[in-house]
Design a protein that fits this description.
Layout lengths: L13 H23 L6 H28 L10
Length: 80
Amino acid sequence: MKKVFPLSFFGKNLKSVILSTLLYTLIFVVVAIIIGCIPASGTLGIVLNLLRQFTLLYSASGIVIAILNACNLLDKKWFE
């Protein structure tokens, strides 16, 4: 899990959770702005929308994992 969500494992305090939340939010905002600037219709529009939705899912999952990591609610077996 550390390989997929590296920003979620900075530390186990409030400062690291806030930092990782801001970074995941920044990732989503940048991707959404870039995709929003591309005029697309038809198949390209669908692909760009899927990319934007995947980025939103990745960012939200990273934030949740950062919070769970800070609260010590993740098993060690998931880290490998």
